[in-house]
Amino acid sequence: MIQVKMLKKAMTGNYIVPAFNIANFEILKGLILAIEETNSPMILQVSESAMNYFTDDIMYGIVLGIRKKKLPISIHLDHGHSFDVVKRAIKLGFDSVMIDGSTLPYKENVRLTKKVVNYAHARNVSVEGELGVLAVANDEGLLTDGERFTSPEQAKEFVALTGVDSLAISIGTNHGINKYQGEPKIRYDILKKIEKEIPNTPIVLHGASLVGKKYIDKINENGGNITKSIGNENLLKNAYKTHISKINMDTDFRLAYTSAVREYLHAHPDKYSPRDYGQAGIEEVKKCAVDRITKICKSNNKIKK
Ligand code: G3H
Ligand code: 13P
Ligand code: ZN
Predict the structure, then answer these.
(1) Which of 32, 98, 178, 193 has the lowest CB atom count within 10 Å?
(2) How far is the CA of 258 from the centre of ligand 1 (A)?
(3) Helix residue ranges per DSSP H, the chain
(4) How many whole angstroms separate alpha carbon 124 and alpha carbon 96?
(5) Residue 91 pLDDT > 90, yes or no?
């Protein structure tokens, strides 16, 4: 279970393993270039909708291709919502899966997660569970803190009952481009309590994209119209010192890619080859990943050559 080893090393080593989503081929290529440049471990993760976009046969080829590069990469299913999608990812050669039962009633979440752990561990595949709800910004006000944030005591029970290898928690980050309604705030106080309750379990933070203003501005300067966005800039600077051992970023690479493609096409109205503007996207994704690896994860040069 290569991902478990990666995460445990990061947990005790004051760094975070970057878990970056691949939404298309160009983003995948940019991320691989960033690993090669930084000598960082990485989790390349694929959501169910990304898997559908690639289609299973092509996804299988991508998995084989990634393995052939012999880089420190773990391939992970992001936000699996059913037993069936977990089985599908394992069949495609993923070495780790997330089962996200966080929106189910607690007992149902435990039942489904335990079923996945039994199935996955028998196949040498590690499992990430989730407890607590990552609200989308608009829903923030609809949930009480008790409903939204992970309960430290329940986290202890959940890990013991399910046997998960890592736990995604909710301490204030949200998914997507517009993460917060008001003043962004991450509940590091809750994280400290969770760390005490599950001291040996690597913690996962979803919704960790910084959503840099630079990308939004570039998109808007080149014909885009993204008006509302509040990200995590500055909020995750010290996360590497905690038990957060895996951070999930997807939005940042979508923005990096789109901003570069828009800029390229605007500057070169005569160009039409997808490999021309695709290359601009790949380079921007690589730059963005190197930045997150070195500034937030501190995982550069953590792989011995
Ligand atoms: O956390 C969710 C990821 O950003 C995946 O999003 O289902 O649009 O690929 P997606
Ligand atoms: P962002 O939306 O902040 O990129 O988070 C991605 C994520 O959590 C994927 O699981
Ligand atoms: Zn997520």
Answers:
(1) 193
(2) 16
(3) 2-12, 25-38, 48-54, 56-68, 83-91, 106-121, 145-148, 152-162, 188-197, 213-221, 251-267, 274-292
(4) 9
(5) yes
The helix (H) or strand (E) run that includes residue 246 is strand 244-249
What pairs with residue 43 in β-bridges? 19, 74
Query: Which tokens belong to 1?
Result: 């279970």
Ligand 2 centroid from CA 272, angstroms = 31
Query: Looking at per-residue confidence, does 214 or 134 come out higher?
Result: 214
Q: How confident is the model at residue 138 (pLDDT cuts 50, 70, 90)?
A: low
Residues serving a catalytic function are 78
- Torsion over CA: 161, 165, 171, 174 (sign): negative
Give the pLDDT mean for 5-23: 96
**What does the pLDDT look like over 44-76, one tens digit per residue?**
999 999 999 999 999 999 999 999 999 999 999
Average pLDDT in the 93-103 region?
A: 97
Nearest protein Cα to ligand 2, atom 1 = 207
CB 80 within 8 A of CB 127: no
DSSP 5-73: HHHHHHHHTT--EEEEE--SHHHHHHHHHHHHHHT--EEEEEEHHHHHHH-HHHHHHHHHHHHHTT-SE
Ligand 2 atom nearest the C-alpha of 79 is 10
Give the pair of three-digit tokens for residue 177: 């481009």
The CA 177 to ligand 2 mean position distance, Å, reads 9
Residues 82-108 as b or e (16 or more Cβ within 10 Å = b):
eeebbbbbbebebbbbbbbbbeeeeee
Is this prediction's pTM over 0.90?
Answer: yes
